[in-house]
Amino acid sequence: MTPPHDPIGQARAWLERYESFGGKTSGGEGDLACGAWLEEVLRGLGYAVRRQLIETPWFETADASLAIEGRAAEVLVQAPAVQTSRAGLTAPLRLFDADRPANVAGAIALIVLPHGRWSSVEQPAVAGPLAAAAAAGARGAVLVTVGPSGEALALNAPSSAAAALPTAILAPREAAPFISAARRGASAALTLLGRGGRRQSFNLIGRMGPGGERSLVVSTPRSGWFGCMGERGPGLAVWLSLAERLAERPPAIDVAFVCTSGHEYESAGGKAFLRDGAPRPAETALWLHLGANVAARDWHEAGGNLAPLPSADPQRFLVATEGLVPLARAAFAGLAGLEAAYPAAAGAAGEAADILAAGYARTAGIFGAHRLHHARGDDGRCVEPALAVQVADAAERFIRGALA
User: Is 333 helix (H, G, I), strand (E, B) or coil?
Assistant: First the structure.
């Protein structure tokens, strides 16, 4: 297949198709349908395709609310889900204070996070208060994910860990009356009900090449909380564009395109591929990972509202291993955030961090968090196809330069 004559139109079609699958939680209907579509696309481009099965938790919410003094708010059930009884958990609601954690003994701890673009329960500012509240004898916990969207943000969690407390997420824009009630220790009712368990999903691996001893790997996740359009969509569009371009003009080495599930469970799919399926570090000429916020759009903030812009959210990071940083800076010049490529020693997040930790010496990775990262509102408004094409062009320059 030749590259499209209208790359922006092609990127738009890919993004619209991705959005059409709805929610992308691992092993759910949308995730599996998306994986099957990508399998068909790669096979049509001439890649030899296989699935790598993985297993992740799942939970479907039936009722999730926090109520005080005649007022109730919908909350998110935080993974790994711990349900309350059908009658709910009734206890005093108290503000968590790291200097006085015993204050939440026997209570529902209200943990107000500092302003940030939150993504994981393993972040110290989240994990520390949760552990302290549980150790102090709290009966439940509610996190207020203060950030630029005002929405409740679902947080990634390990796939095998068990939460100590029933834990929920409350949108910061709805938090004020609950914070006031928590200061008084008012009685509250937390209800978290649904059904869940564990289920299968799969990583998709497409390979093409002469069968040599060196490989190029290009990877991206497809799963996430809710529709995850800005978080995942542009990375997937860039991944597909590169798959087309490299099929049309293949490098003289083996190529592996990897699309993982299990991202919201602390990159479970990416870790599975690293354990079994990835070429060894010594056999890898280059690994490019396309993580979150590859090319989500930016927003103006005005009077508490967000207005979409045609430019990219600059809270995206590009890291590269030693020797590749100058090439990365040149290839991505002019792209907000990505133009300032950092040495990998500065650190990374998500799957990029796992790849680097596994010893891949020629690696570059993009990651970040746009303004609606992990929010229910991360939908088609958060993407602009032209922004994905810009990154695809830069990524192709980088790949071909690194392999020259």
Answer: coil
The pair of structure tokens assigned to 350 is 């998500």
Q: Is 361 exposed, middle or buried (0-12, 13-18, 19+ CB in 10 A)?
A: middle
Fill in the amino acid letter for 217.
V
Whether the ω angle into residue 326 lies within 30 degrees of 0, i.e. cis, is: no
Name the 3-class secondary structure at 346: helix
366-400, pLDDT tens digit by residue? 999 999 999 999 999 999 999 999 999 999 999 99
Q: Is 40 in contact with 27 (CB distance < 8 Å)?
A: no
Alpha helix positions (H), 88-221: 124-135, 176-184
Which backbone phi and psi does 257 adopt, to 5 degrees?
-105, 120
Whether residues 166 and 31 fall in one domain: no
> Do 52 and 69 belong to one domain?
no
The residue range of the domain holding 96 is 59-194
Q: Model-level pTM?
A: 0.95
Secondary structure (3-state) at 223: coil
**Residues 117 and 182 both lie in one domain:** yes
Q: Is residue 1 part of a domain?
A: no
Q: pLDDT tens digits, residue range 219-263?
A: 999 999 999 999 999 999 999 999 999 999 999 999 999 999 999
| Domain containing residue 259: CATH number | 3.40.630.10
Q: How many CB atoms lie within 10 A of CB 120?
A: 16
How many other β-carbons are positioned within 10 Å of the β-carbon of residue 224? 25
